[in-house]
Design brief:
Blueprint (H helix, E strand, L loop, with lengths): L7 E9 L2 E9 L5 E9 L8 H25 L8
Antiparallel strand pairs: 1-2, 2-3
Length: 82
């Protein structure tokens, strides 16, 4: 039988000089606290849709938090795809 888990994620998103930066702070019910950072930039050929930059930066920040956790547990560099 599976057990539902509850996590809280705080996302801080800002834009500066054409780049979107997100910081994700993940809190679980146990003492785990993870932080990750992700960025996104607008390709000059693309239409400017700020929400997409926010989503990309946020997802990359969560992936960074997970990679940081893997590295902390394994002492091996985690692969980071962007």
């Amino acid at each position: 039988m599976s057990t539902a888990k509850k996590w809280s994620v705080e996302l801080l998103i800002d834009e500066h000089e054409g780049r979107t930066r997100a910081e994700a702070r993940l809190h679980t019910l146990d003492p785990t606290r993870l932080v990750g950072v992700g960025t996104a930039r607008l390709n000059p050929a693309d239409r400017d849709v700020p929400e997409i930059g926010d989503e990309l930066a946020a997802s990359r920040a969560l992936a960074d938090a997970a990679a940081n956790d893997v590295e902390g547990v394994t002492a091996t560099p985690a692969r980071r795809d962007e």
